[in-house]
Design brief:
- This protein has 328 residues and is of the alpha+beta class.
- Helix content is 17%, strand content 37%.
- The chain is built from six helices and 18 strands.
- The chain has one domain (2-299): Beta-galactosidase, Chain A, domain 5, CATH 2.70.98.
- The strands form three sheets. Strands 1, 7, 8, 9, 10, 12, 13, 14, 16 and 18 form a ten-stranded antiparallel beta sheet that branches.
- A hairpin with a 2-residue loop joins strand 3 (39-43) and strand 4.
Length: 328
């Protein structure tokens, strides 16, 4: 396993001043298992802050897909698509997000869970729509690391693990690794506002830049996903205290079918909620709010320090205040 350190270094360091996202969340999620020390939040159809290894330490700003046909349009999920979110089950903190083109041409459907045993977020993704358009679409995963609770001083790298290239980032000994069950046909690390993937695609609907390294700044990672042979894949985002740890966790998580992870994820939450009093008949929604509220409260307890609770998986005024060096 090695980081590719050649001459392809991104320009525009250190990038624009970083910000967190808005504190209004549509959903939070985590596996019930104490071994899965990772939590995610979602709003506007995308993942926002992901917390690791404790519930009070956000490690990314957001993760979303970008879409273009290379000729006439460029969409990001948050700004340009209509979003619908629904729970995978009443008792389980996993979600299904459907983001639809406003002209009805295509849809991106995502099921998001935590690996039931490891610190890895799994996003089963599939594309729906007109096949002639889908054949022309280019799909990109865009990730904004804010490791160790801050957007400055992050470093991103294209790395090689188990014979394939992945995207990684590091700060103060905390690592993340992003990969998928389909290949990245292009990858790049850049500085936000200068050489990042969103800026690249927005200019001419093409990914022209491929940088292997962007160090010590406000960075973003982008990978073009190979959907030519399959419109369905699983994207993984894993964390660890070393590159080896994060990359190994990612490889292990993606090595099992998403369906197996999903079944185990739902089973863990189901067993945790079996003792609930049978109040569904007394409710107006079949007990849905009752069950989801119970799971939500369980999710706000830390898994490393039992009994430690956090008020909310969000950052107050995150979209308006500066994201400092290692501070909120």
């Amino acid at each position: 396993m090695a980081i590719l350190r050649d001459a392809k270094r991104a320009f525009g360091a250190p990038g624009i001043a970083p910000r967190w996202t808005q504190s209004a969340k549509d959903a939070i999620g985590t596996a019930y298992s104490a071994g899965s020390t990772v939590w995610f939040t979602a709003s506007a159809g995308i993942l926002n802050e992901v917390y690791y290894p404790t519930i009070d330490r956000p490690q990314i700003r957001d993760l979303q897909y970008l879409v273009t046909d290379g000729e006439s349009f460029f969409h990001d999920e948050r700004r340009h698509l209509e979003s619908r979110l629904e729970p995978l089950a009443n008792d389980a903190l996993g979600v299904r997000i459907t983001n639809a083109d406003r002209e009805g041409r295509y849809r991106i459907v995502k099921e998001v869970i935590g690996d039931p045993h490891q610190p890895c977020i799994l996003i089963r993704t599939w594309l729906e729509g007109d096949e002639q358009l889908l054949a022309r679409l280019r799909l990109f995963a865009l990730l904004a690391p804010h490791l160790d609770v801050g957007g400055w001083e992050n470093s991103g790298y294209v790395a090689e693990a188990a014979g394939r290239e992945i995207l990684t980032a590091e700060k103060h000994g905390t690592w993340l690794a992003m990969g998928a069950t389909v290949a990245f046909v292009r990858r790049s690390c850049g500085y936000v506002g200068a050489s990042d993937g969103w800026t690249d695609l927005a200019q001419d609907l093409r990914m022209d830049w491929e940088f292997d390294v962007a160090e010590n700044g406000n960075i973003a990672l982008i990978g073009e996903l190979d959907t030519r042979d399959s419109r369905e894949f699983t994207l993984g985002l894993a964390f660890g205290k070393s590159l080896h740890h994060a990359a190994t966790t990612l490889s292990q998580s993606l090595g099992f079918p998403f369906s197996q992870h999903r079944e185990r994820f739902l089973d863990q939450w189901g067993r945790a909620c079996r003792h609930l009093a049978p109040l569904a008949a007394a409710s107006g929604d079949g007990g849905r709010l009752y069950h989801s509220s119970h799971a939500l409260l369980l999710a706000h307890e830390d898994k490393t320090y039992p009994g430690a609770m956090i008020a909310s998986l969000s950052i107050p005024w995150g979209a308006t205040i500066s994201c400092g060096r290692g501070t909120w």
